[in-house]
Amino acid sequence: MDVSDDLKELVAKKLKKFDKFFNDNAEAVVTFNRRHNQECLEITISANGTLYRSEEKNETFNNALDECIESIERQIRKNKTRLEKRLRAGAFEAMDSKYFDVEEEKEFHIRTKTFPFKPMTPEEAILQMNLLGHQFFVFVDSQTEDTCVVYKRLDGDYGMIMPEK
To answer: Which residues lie below 8 Å from residue 44, measured CB to CB, with a gap of 6+?
Structure first.
């Protein structure tokens, strides 16, 4: 879709807010689309091997943009201690303590599950995921022999995550 120059400038201005957190090697990808009479905005920021992502739907792109910016900021605040080594040195030092009103998770509770990997096609993996009633499914692709993940997207479609070669 065509995005107006004004909207592009607004996005760039709002994303500048994150300069205090990221070094110059950070990259942001912003995706605009319209679904079901709503405007959808997705922001993905890649910095030092870590992804920060937010996708919001709203009546206007401006409102969706504000929600995405707040969501990514909340992600950073919530994981401040864990992210300090990956973010720009001193990113949090000059900030007022009230900025960190979101309580940080103290530790991750991880439940481990094992299951046999049977090589299969992505279509078979989606079928298995749906039979289990899960939102994602890890499998070994029978064609490439890569470990991949299929998942159910919010828009009702399916996605697949595969390793970069």
So the answer is: 28, 29, 31, 51, 52, 53
